[in-house]
């Protein structure tokens, strides 16, 4: 639900193809990541939503990046997580540490912002290859309208990199995959409403991908201090990206 109430998405209910993205060897132990488009109705693998819920709830509890708030000792409920994160589309990345599934062939790839990728036929469950979700989920994000109705062609996204997977370059893969999936979902542009000014890694990433800072909101978030000494109000940037010139853009709704 947006600030304007319930939204109606301009996109179809189809599931977009999975993709594989190839990382430079120096970036991480994993040479490639498969990316999968899911909705709540298709995210049925045992333990999958539980893992995503747990990671998001922990991020909310840290109180340094998302505006949601829970009381001390409480955990964000699964119902609240599903309503917020699975309102429309979810994109999840799966780490591959070997080539048991034959994905290492970089033939017929396309480059997106300096990274090679291609469409593949593989499910998230097959990509998991019987591993625990905690071991193989590189990151995940939602994509949904930022506004309802006549402005629903502009999307919003929220990204999570699990604690165990940070520092390996996976966030760069997930960000680039957003530039692939969001236009194909029918969105003409994206707005990130709250990128807090102390989130330097995120700011650098979106600037690198040529997102535009369209505004600064003073005191946008009452965040926990990273030193554990209480809370502080932090400004936030609004970032914008036009998708209409990107490959795969589905076109304006007539």
Automatic annotation (TrEMBL):
Pfam families named among the record's database cross-references: Acetyltransf_1
Gene3D superfamilies linked to this entry: 3.40.630.30
Superkingdom: Eukaryota
Annotated InterPro entries: Acyl_CoA_acyltransferase, GNAT_dom, Mito_N-acetyltransferase
GO cellular component, one term: nucleus
Residue span, N-acetyltransferase domain: 133-209
Any GO MF annotation of the entry: acyltransferase activity, transferring groups other than amino-acyl groups
SUPFAM superfamilies per UniProt: Acyl-CoA N-acyltransferases (Nat)
PANTHER family for the chain: ACETYLTRANSFERASE, GNAT FAMILY, N-ACETYLTRANSFERASE ACA1
Name of the protein: N-acetyltransferase domain-containing protein
Taxonomic source organism: Rickenella mellea
């Amino acid at each position: 639900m947006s600030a304007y109430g319930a939204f109606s998405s301009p996109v179809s209910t189809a599931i977009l193809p999975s993709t594989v993205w190839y990382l430079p060897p120096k970036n991480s132990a994993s040479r490639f990541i498969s990316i999968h488009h899911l909705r709540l109705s298709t995210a049925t693998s045992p333990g999958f939503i539980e893992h995503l819920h747990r990671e998001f709830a922990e991020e909310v509890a840290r109180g340094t990046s998302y505006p949601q708030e829970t009381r001390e000792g409480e955990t964000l409920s699964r119902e609240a997580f599903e309503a917020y994160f699975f309102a429309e589309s979810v994109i999840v990345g799966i780490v591959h540490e070997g080539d048991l599934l034959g994905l290492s062939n970089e033939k017929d790839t396309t480059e997106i912002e300096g990274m090679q990728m291609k469409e593949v036929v593989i499910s998230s469950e097959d990509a998991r290859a019987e591993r625990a979700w905690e071991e193989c989920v590189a990151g995940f994000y939602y994509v949904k309208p930022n506004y309802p109705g006549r402005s629903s062609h502009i999307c919003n996204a929220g990204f999570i990199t699990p604690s165990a997977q940070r520092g390996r370059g996976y966030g760069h893969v997930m960000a680039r995959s957003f530039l692939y999936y969001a236009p194909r979902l029918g969105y003409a542009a994206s707005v990130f409403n709250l990128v807090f000014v102390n989130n330097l890694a995120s700011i650098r990433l979106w600037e690198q991908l040529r997102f535009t800072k369209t505004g600064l909101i003073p005191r946008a978030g009452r965040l926990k201090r990273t030193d554990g000494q209480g809370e502080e109000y932090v400004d936030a940037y609004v970032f914008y990206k036009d998708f209409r010139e990107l490959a795969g853009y589905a076109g304006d709704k007539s």
